[in-house]
Amino acid sequence: MPNVIIDYEKCEGTECGECAEVCSMEVLAIDGDKITVKNQDGCSLCEICTDVCPNEAIKLVD
User: What value does the mean pLDDT take over residues 16-21?
Assistant: First the structure.
């Protein structure tokens, strides 16, 4: 099962939010002012979220 890890020290949260917008599997979500992992099991390791993150705040571990 993939593990989605968000580095909150690097993440801009809702100021950016691109990762949550591009995730077609709805793994990431905006919760208040930060990005959260909503559906860990749904991750297909496509890496689109890591590609759009300007701060390299998301890591995917298989």
Answer: 97
| pTM recorded for the entire structure | 0.89
CATH number of the domain at 41, please: 3.30.70.20
Full residue range of the structural domain in which residue 29 is found? 3-61
Instruction: Look at the chain and report how many structural domains it folds into.
Output: 1
CA distance linking residue 58 with residue 51, whole number of Å: 9
Instruction: Return d(Cα 61, Cα 14) in angstroms, integer.
Output: 23
What is the per-residue pLDDT for 2? 85
